[in-house]
Amino acid sequence: MREINDIIIHCTATRRGRNHTVDQVRQWHLARGFDDIGYHYLIYTDGTLHLGRPVEQVGAHAYGHNQHSIGICYVGGLDRLGRPANTLNAAQQRTLVTLVKTLLSIFPQAQLHGHNDYSDKQCPCFDVAEWWNKNNV
Hints:
Shape: globular
Order of helices and strands: EEHEEEEHEH
CATH architecture: 3-Layer(aba) Sandwich
Helix content: 25-40%
Largest sheet: 5 strands, mixed
Strand content: 15-25%
Number of helices: 3
Number of domains: 1
Strand order of the largest sheet: 4-3-5-1-7
CATH class: Alpha Beta
Structural class: alpha/beta
């Protein structure tokens, strides 16, 4: 197993209420020249957790930070008009909290970040540190 120092949260940057699958995101990433889906986990709008790239493999989700990180992505991130927004619904929220807690128990040295901590992007369209402080109970 590779060393994991970061858990990085992303969004698909798609409009609220529109679901997208692992296969669709994989196709988007293949079209960009990736060799597979870049994320390790994808959380659908119904809150179900789906595996992307195996955690043992280096992801392709945060340039310069992939070697020692795990990428989690939730479907959403844009409001109905296409503007960046925290579109996490209650089901996605529960799944994300459970997944992050599980991963931090396996990789206790890992730090939690949003993609926007490492890139000039709005993704995941919320402040991850603030979110975690409110939800890590």
